């Protein structure tokens, strides 16, 4: 197949491109250097091919408390990008199946995190703007499907982890931040200070598992919003203990700063629809996934500068 991918050099994009290339697909890989999606004409130069699939992974955001300080920019940047990609799809590539990423923060945490509630209630205030841009992206899919019968798939991931995460100074998702801090505590005897009291809970999906699931769903599922999660969550303390055991760092040395930003206290996606679509789907066990991620961090330790 001929496949165009935005955000191709990001954490998920790198893993997805590697998988699709191994399957023999013809890829056009876009990133911020070769295509500025905030420009309405940026995709026109890629119209020389008729694509079978378009994966839209690009988004303007970072982990941690980034969303607290950039809500206006996030709204403008992501709305431009999403609108331009959807407009290009409808006008020039209507034959392509459009696969894009939602976000778990779009859910109202007072409701069950099931797909039927994706557009219901109010997202957490600290992530409200980014969450609403992802809701608007999904609303765009619904509208284009209704009027033009365009074919889409929207995937809502829990936190992804694995080797190859960015080490360019941006804020990291919690699991990478935990590993980085604990490794630096081991190497340099730095204090390990984690945000929150450690009781907040999260679930993880290994990035290679997510890529495989996305590709399988793109082959068999049309016009759906589907959660992709592990179906179980653990506390930050639990993750920290597992990492300490593998790194050889004393968990009792860890300090918890309950004054720092932690986001939602709990976030675990309901995955019944995923299980119905892919009943034989197997995920990488948490301990194995952490081992692979930690091994990569050891290899990249010189890049693991402290971020405060």
TrEMBL record:
Transmembrane segment boundaries: none
One Pfam family in the UniProt entry: Epimerase
Gene3D superfamilies: NAD(P)-binding Rossmann-like Domain (3.40.50.720), UDP-galactose 4-epimerase, domain 1 (3.90.25.10)
UniProt domain NAD-dependent epimerase/dehydratase: residue ranges: 3-229
Domain of life from the UniProt record: Bacteria
Molecular functions (GO terms): GDP-L-fucose synthase activity
Protein name: Nucleoside-diphosphate-sugar epimerase
Organism: Atelocyanobacterium thalassa (isolate ALOHA)
């Amino acid at each position: 197949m001929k496949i165009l991918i935005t955000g191709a050099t990001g954490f998920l994009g790198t893993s997805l491109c590697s998988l699709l290339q191994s399957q023999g697909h013809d890829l056009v890989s876009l990133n911020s250097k070769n295509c500025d999606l905030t420009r309405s004409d940026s995709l026109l130069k890629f119209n020389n091919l008729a694509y079978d699939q378009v994966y839209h992974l690009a988004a303007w955001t970072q982990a941690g408390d980034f969303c607290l300080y950039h809500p206006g920019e996030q709204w403008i940047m992501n709305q431009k990008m999403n609108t331009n990609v959807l407009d290009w799809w409808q006008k020039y590539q209507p034959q392509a199946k459009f696969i894009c990423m939602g976000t778990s923060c779009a859910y109202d945490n007072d409701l069950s995190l099931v797909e039927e509630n994706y557009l219901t209630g109010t997202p957490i205030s600290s992530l409200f703007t980014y969450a609403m841009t992802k809701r608007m992206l999904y609303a765009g899919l619904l509208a284009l499907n209704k009027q033009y019968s365009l074919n889409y798939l929207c995937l809502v991931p829990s936190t992804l982890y694995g080797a190859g995460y960015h080490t360019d100074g941006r804020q990291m998702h919690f699991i990478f931040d935990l590993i980085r801090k604990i490794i630096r505590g081991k190497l340099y005897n730095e204090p390990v200070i984690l945000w929150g009291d450690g009781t907040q809970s999260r679930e993880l999906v290994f990035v290679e598992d997510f890529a495989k699931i996305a590709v399988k769903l793109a082959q068999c599922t049309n016009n759906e919003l589907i959660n992709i999660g592990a179906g179980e969550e653990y506390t930050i303390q639990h993750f920290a203990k597992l990492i300490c055991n593998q790194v050889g760092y004393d968990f009792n040395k860890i300090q918890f700063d309950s004054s720092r930003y932690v986001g939602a206290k709990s976030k675990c996606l309901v995955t019944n629809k995923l299980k119905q679509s892919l009943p034989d789907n197997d995920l990488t066990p948490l301990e194995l996934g952490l081992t692979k991620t930690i091994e990569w961090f050891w290899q990249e330790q010189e890049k693991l500068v402290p971020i405060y």
